[in-house]
Automatic annotation (TrEMBL):
Belongs to the type-I 3-dehydroquinase family. The active site is at 111 (proton donor/acceptor), 136 (schiff-base intermediate with substrate). It comes from Crateriforma conspicua. The gene is aroE_1. This is 3-dehydroquinate dehydratase. It catalyses: 3-dehydroquinate = 3-dehydroshikimate + H2O. Pathway: Metabolic intermediate biosynthesis; chorismate biosynthesis; chorismate from D-erythrose 4-phosphate and phosphoenolpyruvate: step 3/7; Metabolic intermediate biosynthesis; chorismate biosynthesis; chorismate from D-erythrose 4-phosphate and phosphoenolpyruvate: step 4/7.
Length: 496
């Protein structure tokens, strides 16, 4: 079950929003009385309530907004119990001042917005002993192991326990709460108002992550990176799983660079079966592979890993996807050894995508010039794969059959910029922009204006996701669902 936290300054707003949530199918709503600006009129909020509630009045010290007296706060909590609300949230230090009465369930809670305490087990035991129906601990995740400790705590507890890590790093603990035994998880009522850091909107929790359907059999995958919050991968993979009726969930896994080993040590304990890998982990993840496709060794990076009990197999689906697009446009023969031998390409950028594409082009015999603002990185790729590397300012100086933008210039919100001057394009070029948000970048628009053949970032993204889906599930990917989902999500008309 998902409990939606609702905080509004005015009673009328709180009541209207509560009703609206229930109409949308929400089964439990937390009324955050500390958000109410004036004196709290509890009767008004709960007498005609449209569905079950948790009553919470959080102090400032615990991350809430309660400014009135502590006496008033304990009074309100006692009155809520006397009125027979379904749940009341009682911080552990005041648990003995708020007696049990009637059928109201006691959520004994503890918050730490700075970190996750070392003595979690002791803390939990003391809370459970305070006549708790539910123990709830919400702490900030500062390292990935905080998530692991909190999920273990919930899993091992005999008292129903909600153990949530706040912050972007803790999102998986919210999504997997039920799987580790929690009676419910918390989500926010509004896309722009988060009651706590890392909270997801309840619709996202419900429709994208399918929270209520996650069980012990659910296959878990995720995006390993830092940051991961802006990525469309969870949306797209989860829609694909749902469309195919596949019992799987794709999680956002924010893991800081230095925590990679902690994550990899625990990935199987959490139940992770596969990973899409983003910066900064694409290089070092190789150390955790038991085997990898040839492209991974060639490129020096992977972006996909499939895991089972013994094996961790690395792939580079960026390379595969990009080369599929290029092969299609140039109508390259799959069995020809060096089908691009007479061609040349200019690749803009020297990051992970550039590396993967340069390796692919070189293995097909293409002459490659890399233009980059980071000559050190560029020279590394140039040396490894035998291509020319030039300063960014010289990017227009080379004749090329193929121009590849592997930088993020032109990506939302930088939509008015193009990495290449329009008057330097010519109609014989194929223009490939790896940016997919938006699909119609300024570069793609310029290229289309003069009738160049183009490959868009969406063309590549759909193939990349399709390969990952196949590697994860062993089944053909629903490419139409993937394409529609990413197109809708990146459609500028929907931007707010
Ligand atoms: O304790 C919790 C959990 C929470 O802090 C969260 O992190 O989602 C949100 C609060 O409203 C609720 O009372």
């Amino acid at each position: 079950m998902i409990c939606v936290s609702l905080g509004r300054a005015r009673h009328a707003r709180m009541i209207a929003e509560h009703k609206h949530l229930v109409e949308q199918g929400v089964k439990l709503v937390e009324l955050r009385l500390d958000y109410i600006g004036r004196a709290v009129n509890l009767k008004r909020l709960i007498d005609d309530r449209p569905g079950p509630v948790v009553i919470t009045a959080r102090r400032r010290d615990d991350g809430g907004r309660w400014l009135k007296s502590e006496e008033e706060r304990t009074m309100v909590l006692r009155s809520a119990i006397a009125s027979g609300v379904e749940y009341v949230d009682i911080e552990s230090d005041i648990a003995d001042q708020i007696p049990r009465y009637g059928n109201t369930k006691r959520i004994i809670s503890f918050h730490d917005f700075d970190g996750t305490p070392e003595n979690l087990e002791d803390l939990h035991a003391a809370m459970a002993a305070a006549d708790a129906d539910i123990v709830k601990i919400a702490t900030m995740a500062n390292t990935f192991s905080d998530n692991v400790r909190m999920m273990d705590l919930a899993r091992q507890s005999s008292v129903p326990t909600i153990a949530i890590c706040m912050g972007e790093m803790g999102m998986l603990t919210r999504i997997l709460a039920h799987r580790v035994g929690a009676p419910f998880t918390y989500a926010t009522f509004s896309t722009d108002k988060k009651i706590a850091p890392g909270q997801l909107h309840f619709k996202e929790m419900q429709d994208v992550y399918r929270y209520d359907q996650i069980n012990d059999d659910t296959q878990l995958y995720g995006l390993l990176g830092d940051p991961v919050g802006e990525s469309f991968d969870p949306l797209v993979h989860n829609k694909a799983f749902a469309g195919e009726g596949h019992n799987a969930c794709f999680l956002p896994l924010r893991v800081p660079e230095d925590d990679l080993h902690i994550f990899m040590d625990h990935a199987r304990d959490i139940g992770i079966n596969g990973l899409s890998i983003d910066p900064p982990h694409q290089g070092r993840s190789i150390d955790y592979c038991t085997q990898a496709e040839a492209a991974v060794a060639g490129i020096g990076e992977l972006n996909t890993m499939a895991l089972d009990d013994e094996r961790a197999v690395g792939y580079n689906t960026d390379y595969r996807a990009a080369m599929d697009c290029i092969s299609e446009v140039f109508e390259l023969h799959a069995d020809a050894e060096k089908p691009m031998q007479s061609m040349s390409a200019t690749v803009l950028g020297s990051g992970s995508l550039a590396k993967a594409i340069v390796w692919g082009l070189r293995s097909k015999g293409c002459n490659v010039t890399i233009a980059t603002k980071d000559m050190e990185q560029g020279n590394e790729i140039g040396l490894a794969h035998g291509c020319r590397v030039v300063e960014w300012e010289l990017r227009h100086d080379f004749r090329a059959n193929l121009l590849v933008n592997a930088t993020d210039i032109g990506m939302h919100p930088d939509v008015d910029n193009s990495p290449f001057n329009a008057d330097q394009l010519n109609e014989l070029m194929v223009v490939f922009d790896t940016v997919y948000y938006p699909e119609q970048t300024l570069l793609i628009k310029h290229a289309k204006n003069i009738k160049c053949r183009v490959i868009t970032g969406i063309d590549m993204y759909v193939r990349k996701m399709g390969y990952q889906y196949k590697l994860f599930t062993g089944k053909q990917a629903p490419l139409d669902v993937i394409r529609k989902t990413i197109k809708d999500a990146t459609n500028p008309v929907q931007l707010n």
